[in-house]
Amino acid sequence: METNPEVTGPTIRPRRLRTTPALRRMVAETSVEARQLVLPLFVREDISEPVAISSMPGVLQHTRSSLRAAVTEAAELGLGGVMLFGVPATKDAEGSGAIDPQGILNLAITDVVAEVGDALTVMSDLCLDEFTDHGHCGVLTPDGQVDNDRTLAAYAAMARAQAHAGVDMVGPSGMMDGQVAVVRAALDAAEYQDVSVLAYSAKYASAFFGPFREAVGSSLQGDRRTYQQDAANAREGVREALLDVAEGADLVMVKPAMAYLDVVRRVRDAVDVPVAAYQVSGEYAMLEAAAANGWIDREPAILESLTSIRRAGADVVLTYWATEVARLLAR
Ligand code: PBG
Prior knowledge:
alpha/beta, TIM Barrel, 11 helices
């Protein structure tokens, strides 16, 4: 090959686009914005002060009044929404506190809507596990199996109760077959056509949910492997998402996020509704623990994790760092 003496290196240099912060910002393919972030919040019955969750440093179980302050801040920062979880004082086999209009989650929905109005999308977890004494996401058969179809009836009642309390969007997260269709039908029959459904579609039986069990005071023995998905299966995650879209889901979600970025991408490519991803309690705890030990640079690691979830295809990200990240982005 003839060599040109003036060429001392390659002419095509991708590094040129990395020269300055302004240039890198201009050509960035992905962004993280406050409007895309949803803050999960826990509200606990019968406490007079917020309670720290030791496995999730910085995250609290809220009182009804501290919850109001948290959602006001979320609205001021321009977050996309909040996802509410209730921690009741008493639990029973049927999870009846989930349906009771005076149940903590239903009361909190009304409080939050009164506080923020339309400034935030107010979402609620639609699942029985926070309310059952056995900790499963559904009601049990006499021999202890999770009864899919009896659970669907409870979800329908829960959807009506949450809609009546004023919720904008319900998040069925129990992985019962047919849950989206049943919830949609229950909402429509009660004239809540405008309440939307964020379906936890591809939800895996994950060890990364560990700290959440402390957050909601879960009494679960055993595991959820007969209803949540096997970590080995990505194609099945796409199948679940397509079924949920066919049943009327307005958004579909993949959960956890970081260990399932391939599933996020495959679902994003397969559906034409917005895709959410949930950066779960264990993802939060892992990074906070490493940062607390000085093993990782906390803020860049948080932002990188969220950028990666967005790059994989998530339109919306549920993250316990939502408020903090919105503040970081604004500065
Ligand atoms: C079920 C539910 C769970 C989470 C959100 N909704 C727990 C589970 O399925 O075991 C986990 C969220 C997290 O770990 O941050 N109501």
